[in-house]
Records
---
Amino acid sequence: MTPLIPILFLGALILVFSGRLLVQWSRKNRTQSVTIEDYSSARAALDSVSVETMAIKRIFATDDMGFISRTGTPEVRRIFLKERKTLALQWLRKTQKQVAQLMDLHLKLASYTHEPNPGFELRLTVNYMFFIFASNVLLIFLWLQGPFKAVSTVGYTLRVAEYFCSVFSLRLEKINPVKLDPVRVTRMV
Amino acid sequence: MGTKLIWSSAIALEAIVLCRGVKAALLRNYPFFYAYVGCVFLVDLLRFSCYEFAPNFNQAFYWHTELVTIVMSYAIVFEIFRRSLRLNPAVARFAQTLLFVVLVLTGTYVAIDLLHGGFTSLPRATAELGRDLRYVEGALLLVMLWLFGRYRISFGRNLLGLTIGYSLLVGLDVINLAFLFLPGNELSIGLRKLRPITYLITLIMWCASLWSSRPDPVPPEESAIERDYDLLEAKTRTALAHISVRVASTLRP
């Protein structure tokens, strides 16, 4: 029975993926392909992630916590911790969402480029999976421990987010915008 | 009676698919697919004749022709690959590399498996080779389906029907063949009966989706987009100005 499992898995996956293809097709009739607007908003999103990264490091800075601990009352410390925690969680969720959107756009835009690199694509996939895992772990960690005890994981998440930004930035530079859809209409011949 | 009914229905549906292919001028767009359907149609007619007039020869004839049809079905894999990625050169090259790796890996595994198994009889060896070729085909198809989903490849109705129908056939066939070669498994008997019905469903799907020629999604014409290029430039300038302000405010002590 054991050698049967990978084969059954293969058959089942074919059926699942073909179902997904059907769902994707039915959704495509409602949603549109990549447009020039998507392209320009992706560029803006990339730039904003890069800029915000500098400011975000401040949320997790232990200097602020040290200052509050020295000068503030326990109530002020509690409010400060609560605010920073909320801010950190919001930032992380936003980063997750932005990276997911950029990844989605990157995959859609892949067909507009003429420089395929299978090794790069595989590396990117693995990195993206690690990012999802690490950022979710960080999310739980932030929730349980607060923002100041997750500094190393935050550092990793920021590095990976920056890596994705540089990757997507390179991808966008390779895009020929002339080949994108000008308007939000699915074109057929 | 039931077997004959399914059999004759399949032959009739294959004939309809071929006729519609000619009438809707789809033969030119999907030559490999119609070559496969034509081949299966001929094989089914021969099998039917063999079943009626030379039943003793039927089993050996079945497995030999099954091998031919499985080899021919690789034409559909090629057709799906050719048609779906023709407008996506980057993904096509990535897919080519990935498919080659999968082909070499599964082909090596199958060859080793065949050599280790030994040849008990010709029909058995033929059947095992057919099964292993189907496994390789399944692996190739799986990689393609994954790529289509990952890169959001656009499909026209014709190609979608062809791909979904074929995936259903191969997916269930792979599961069925796995059980079929497992000795003493009761489930395989039930699944064997299900196989012709799956094929009928696939043929019905092909009939419906390839009844008439439907347009494939295409990238927009370049001249139409050039008009909006100035707009993009203006938007980028605005975004840059916005970012400059934010950078300045972030760096301010």
---
Amino acid sequence: MLPTGIHFESYAAETRVLKTRRSRVWLAILVAALLVAPFFAGAYLTGIASEMFITLMAVYGLYITVGMAGQINIAQSAFVGVGAFAAAKLSGYGVPVFLVIPLAALCTGCVSVLFALPASRVKGLYLALTTLAAQAMFPIVIYALPPGWLGGLAGMPVEPLTVFGLDLGSPARLYYFTLAIVAVLTVSVFRIQHSRFGRAMIAVRDNDVAAEVMGIPVFKVKVMSFFVGSLFAGIAGACMAYVLQFVTASSFTLFASVWYLGMLIVGGLHSPLGAILGVLFITIVQESLHKVANTLMQLGAGGGGTLFALTSIILGGCILIALIFEPRGLAHRWAVLRKAFQIWPFPRS
Amino acid sequence: MIKLIQILIEGALVGLVYGLVAISFVVIYRASRIVNLAQGEVLVIGALLLWTFTAGMKAAGWEVPLIISLAMTLAACIAFGLILERFVFRPLISQPAFAIFMASVALLIMLRGTAQLLWTAETRAFPVILPEGAFQLGPFLISTPLALGGLFSVLLAIGLHAFFTRTRQGLRLAAVAEDHRTAMSLGVSVRSAIATAWILGTVVATAAAIVLLSGRVVSLEVAHIGFKALPVALLGGLESIRGAPLAGILIGVGEALAMAYLDPLTNGAASGLLPYLVMITVLLVQPQGLFGWKRIERL
């Protein structure tokens, strides 16, 4: 909903994401805050923020596949893994970073298309099961390949990140690197919604039989949604490889995939804002749990296992609560709050 | 030749265990239209409950006969099924399939966390319930617990099939599997159907745990069997109970052959990949599986 007196004279103005001057000012403030944050936050918080940006990239991809096109994907973590291994392998050959990231993304996209092909025959749940197969097959394949190719059981080291001879090893520099990429991806994900492809995906999500009748190539749109979603996953994987400096198949589990999906559901499936809010919310919950668990461990109660168990229970609980009580997620709550603020002192309709 | 037949027999028996786990998938789907990804976790919870009522209680100083332990496990399974129905799936009745699927994914994480919190991640010895050992049949050696388990899963499949196609209660469940809203409008209680589905599902999963784990060790890793049984359930058809043991035999034999002849060539990957490759092939060629229902879509 818009404040009184705002109207548009062109279609381009109407599709703009930031419709008023005030919202543009807020965005500028947010960007400025993100830019100066590393000067005030310690290395620990900066590290968490870059990790959060990488997660956000993967969740954006999931938003395209699951939120916009309505195709369930429970292999996002495996796709992130494909991107990470591709980046590790390419950086080993001495390829510069601005080629590694697009190539890793492309690799991931091509792999995901293989698993989207059953979309020609099946839909919904059954398609989700093929992505489950992708997730289950990923470690088996990595472990079985000769160790010289992708590191096998031991994993693979990644060359340090350098851009034009500048070493980006420190937490603050990695923060700016991931921030720059996530900014580009945020703009593109907000723009995709209003593109022809984005509208086609939304039509397929809402009713794919009707979309087919209207002349939308449903199969192509479904496969493309997987491809684009995995491009994002591949970029996330490449960034993760650079940040962690080491990749092993054991860090890309079904659990990580479920975490990504959980973040999207808690935040809200139907807007990119949902992805942002979900990642932010779950990261905060996770980090505060770590804090609590650390304090408990210092007092001599519980251990790492209890912490893992508690995080699982709380994440599962968050997803269930979101599904049962607020399927539209935090993004909807945010919209309600904003509207109430805008029309105050009148009651909400 | 004898080696080949021995491999086939062992593969078929292991496959029947997969079939038993697949039956617990199918029972839940057939009665409530829920694909439960958390079935492996349900199996582990069933196994841990049984461990608690046998070895756990023995360690605490209350030893009870096996029959009573089994009865207590059964009661606990029923309570577990009812809790899941009341707090997770009742609020989601007639929601889109996506929400129900995601609920089962959330359940997967939650159950794993709960199992780890209550029983910790250590491995424990599972009580011996089926007779140990093996018997000789001609030149072939057959493991007794697996043979008994295979027999049990075939009988169970026949019995459950009769229940779902011959009895009034079973036909009601079939209506719920067709569509929640239509079933409700015809006066079928979806709530009781989902409760029945989960009770049957947990009980069958616990039975599968007994066959699979009798005399071995139980740990949280056992839950992987759930993902192995999913391709079996799909191959047989998600609505077909009799299809599950048959598909189990097919996948079990295929896996045993791959393990014997292809694994040395592929560094051990062939037998692991086979079930999933079968699953993708089934989805591409005949999505409803061997005996599943074919759905027609209308605008």
